Amino acid sequence: MKPLKLSEVAHAVGGFLNNPDIGNDLIYGVSFDTREDVKGKLFVPFKGVNVDGHDYFGKAMQGGAVCVFSEKETDVPAIYVDCTKQALMDLAEYYRGLFNVTIVGITGSNGKTSCKDMIASVLSQKFSVVKTLGNFNNEIGLPASIFNINEDTEVAVLEMGMNNRWEIHRLSKIARPNIAIITNIGVAHIENLGSQEEIFNAKSEIMDFLAEDGRVFLCGDDEFLRRHDIRDDVTFYGFDEGNTYRPLSVNDMGLEGTTYATILNEGEKLWVSVPAPGRHMVLNSMAAVAVGDYMGLGRSQIASGIADFQSSGMRMDVRDRACGGKLIVDCYNANPDSMKAAVTVLERSGVGRKIAILGDMYELGEYAEKLHLECGIYAQLMDIDVIVCIGNLAKHIFKGAGSNALYFATKEEFLGQMDKIVKPGDVILLKASRGMEFEEIVNELGRF
User: Fold this and answer.
1) SS3 annotation, the chain
2) What is the distance between the alpha carbons of residues 128 and 125, in angstroms, rounded to a whole number?
3) What gap in Å lies between CA 193 and CA 161, rounded to an integer?
4) Residue 396: HSE in the Cβ half-sphere, 13 Å Cα cutoff
5) Out of 13-17, 169-173, 204-208, 364-368, which region has the weakest mean confidence (pLDDT)?
């Protein structure tokens, strides 16, 4: 982070120092957790259900923090603000404005993180790039990513997530993207938003603060996103005809990934090798091709960037099993679209007995039973030998999955029977929402 004077920080967030004498002191970073390095940083406390970060001011000072945001009177060096979260967002917006940097903003119901990683990998072939770490994509995580920008940064690739309307609007206001990408409009968060129509409206907020000369890249295979065809700043990518960027001569190599050709804006043909399985990863790579071409990268740079792509943890992570076979670990998060995509990858994985271990998908509200059942029916239609369903909601997957399905109410019940189900050489998919903590099963499977 570029050093900032405390007086500058206070002015940026509309706060005031509890001691004017510290106005020239500098911060070199921002921290939210006293368990991490806070030396030389501004400590920002948040109030949780059972924890109030204001109670950790002493520990922050002991760790070397320079100052804190505070909603309460305190004896430690502080900038008083009405709301620490809003002050953090205001500071990030101010900080972003200090740099002439190209911001690539990414949102969508599925694939945000993989798309972000792939685009960053491509653009890193030519530019100095900062990207969102993991999926730090909310009103705390996005500012944290922006604070990683410095004078050497040319491009920042930032993921934007949401649970409700106007969250993407606020994130777009902070980031002011030059390039906006929406991967798709699915049913993730439908519990809060009520319909795909509202999800479409919420995701489209990424364009609310798009730069005047900005560009929008959308998956043209998505019927909702096609509505933006009326805009003259939109470029579509995808499998369907009518997209500006689309894959040709597609060669699905199962768990090894996919190769294809595509035509760039100037009419040149580019051959692409995607080192991750699945049709959805091809779409992510198409977004990266489109953005790379727009940003002036050459064919070899784009191809190298996609070939160098590495997925973030527990996202379509293909691992060798010690006893033969493969693990497909895709359990960082889940919704119906991503679960179906993962099951399709398993079906196309090649030789070996195929086992799908599927768990609960959260935030589906009144649609949960229906959507879990649909995933079970979908899995039944695939060439899969055993479908293991785990969790309270997953019993509806089980209902639709047919005679080759097994149901366990808890992970512990499954783990007690796992050695009777899993065999050497099996190809095993694990897919569930993050809250199911399927990494416990992954760890146990590592011993088989």
Assistant:
1) CCCEEHHHHHHHHCCEECCHHHCCCEECCEECCCCCCCCCCEECCCECCCCEHHHHHHHHHHCCCCEEEECCCCCCCEEECCCHHHHHHHHHHHHHCCCCCEEEEEECCCCHHHHHHHHHHHHCCCCCEEECCCCCCCCCHHHHHHCCCCCCCCEEEEECCCCCCCHHHHHHHHHCCCEEEECCCCCCCHHHHCCHHHHHHHHHHHHCCCCCCCEEEEECCCCCHHHHHHCCCEEEECCCCCCCECCEEEEECHHHCEEEEEECCCCCEEEEEECCCCHHHHHHHHHHHHHHHHCCCCHHHHHHHHHCCCCCCCCCEEEECCCCCEEEECCCCCCHHHHHHHHHHHHCCCCCCEEEEEECCCCCHHHHHHHHHHHHHHHHHCCCCEEEEECCCCHHHHHHCCCCEEEECCHHHHHHHHHHHCCCCCEEEEECCHHHCCHHHHHHHCCC
2) 8
3) 14
4) 14
5) 364-368
Can you tell me the distance from the alpha carbon of 193 to that of 171, in angstroms, rounded to the nearest whole number? 18
Work out the number of other CB atoms within 10 angstroms of the CB of residue 271.
12
| Averaged confidence pLDDT in the chain | 95
What phi-psi label fits residue 118: left (phi over 0), alpha (psi between -120 and 50 degrees) or beta? alpha
- Torsions phi, psi of 16, nearest 5? -145, 150
Angle at 19 between CA 16 and CA 23, to 5 degrees: 75
Pair 270, 246: CB distance under 8 Å: no
> What's the pLDDT at 207?
98
CB 205 within 8 A of CB 132: no
pTM, whole model, 2 decimals?
0.92
Cα–Cα distance, 424 to 416 (Å, whole number): 17
Location of structure tokens 């070996």: 352
Q: Please tell me the distance from the alpha carbon of residue 333 to that of residue 295, in angstroms, as a whole number.
A: 31
Query: Burial level of 77, CB count in 10 A (0-12/13-18/19+)?
Result: buried
Place of tokens 């740079």: 301
Helical pair 84-96 and 167-175, crossing angle rounded to 10 deg: 40
310 CB-side CA count, 13 A: 3
pLDDT tens per residue across span 376-430: 999 999 999 999 999 999 999 999 999 999 999 999 999 999 999 999 999 999 9
- The per-residue pLDDT for 448 is 64
At residue 45, what is the residue type? P
CA–CA distance from 410 to each of 77, 137, 359, 365, 385 (Å)? 49, 30, 9, 21, 21
If you compute the radius of gyration of the chain from its CA atoms, what whole number of angstroms results?
23
